[in-house]
Amino acid sequence: MEQKPYTLEEVKERTYKKRDAWWTVVLVDPVASRLVVPVANHTRITPNQISVLAFLVGIFSAYFFYLGDPTSLVTGAVLYHISFILDCMDGKVARLKGNGSVFGMWLDYMLDRVRVVITSFAMMAGQYVQTGEAIYFVLAFLIVFLDMLRYMDALQLYKLRREMRKKIRQAKRDARRTVDVEGIEGFEEGDGKDLQNTYEGVEEGASPVKRKVDLNNAFKKRFGWYLKLRDWLETRRIRPHLFSGIEYQMFIFILGPLSGMIKETVVASSVLLFIFELAIIYKMWLSTQDLNRELEELRREEPMLPSIHKEKELHQL
């Protein structure tokens, strides 16, 4: 049976993330989704091939950054944005066609990191040639360090969230309750609203008692105003973590060259990224305090199953 052509609406429905970086939502998705339609319908290009093409375009932009004159900087910025659009297309094609792979995820991640390293040093070496200021080499190392730190932090936060889920499940089993968990997911995005799972597993014949665990309680008490801002951003598909690794790259490799203020853009972007990373870490720390409190309360509660079984025995007598 012949595959029906993919439509733009289908691409949006099946490939758009529920929340994404504002740069992606505003400046990338509208272009990438329209390019995915002909690529998916009329070519056999794989997601991995698109990833490699995105990397090569990024390296080409690094060459122009190295040249360092105003015209070359603008050309490099345009090429870098095209590279990022292609980088978003590989994931969309994979989700649309279902032909993604674990290796493809690794390849995309590694090429992204290598692209940042090469582009950073190419741009800063070009500026050194143009100005003779050695500070640009320091900025190159700063960009690479913060980019790596951002993604290492994201990985560790993911592991921490997974460990928190394990603890909640174990506490549920001990208390023989179903548990609604709020606030475990989304810390990468500075959100914390994603997950509300009900964990089953109560023995047959027992009436499950829902026990809601809110791991955002401390944060909500301190920053209630943030919830309205979060909800407003989510209606526009924008994640509240407004300055992540994506915005960091785009500011440095697009806005900096276009404005001609590379040094100032790197410094300002680095400060913004560091502030937002601290905010995420602080929010996660608050959630761990909520987790400890909730686990302690669950441990104090008398398990429900024995009492239910006793009632059954009394009825049988």
UniProtKB/TrEMBL annotation:
PROSITE patterns: CDP_ALCOHOL_P_TRANSF. Keywords: Membrane, Transferase, Transmembrane, Transmembrane helix. The keyword Membrane applies. Signal peptide: none annotated. The chain crosses the membrane at residues 49-66, 134-152, 242-260, 266-285. InterPro entries: CDP-OH_P_trans, CDP-OH_PTrfase_TM_dom, CDP_ALCOHOL_P_TRANSF_CS. Pfam families: CDP-OH_P_transf. Belongs to the CDP-alcohol phosphatidyltransferase class-I family. This is CDP-alcohol phosphatidyltransferase family protein. It comes from Salinithrix halophila.
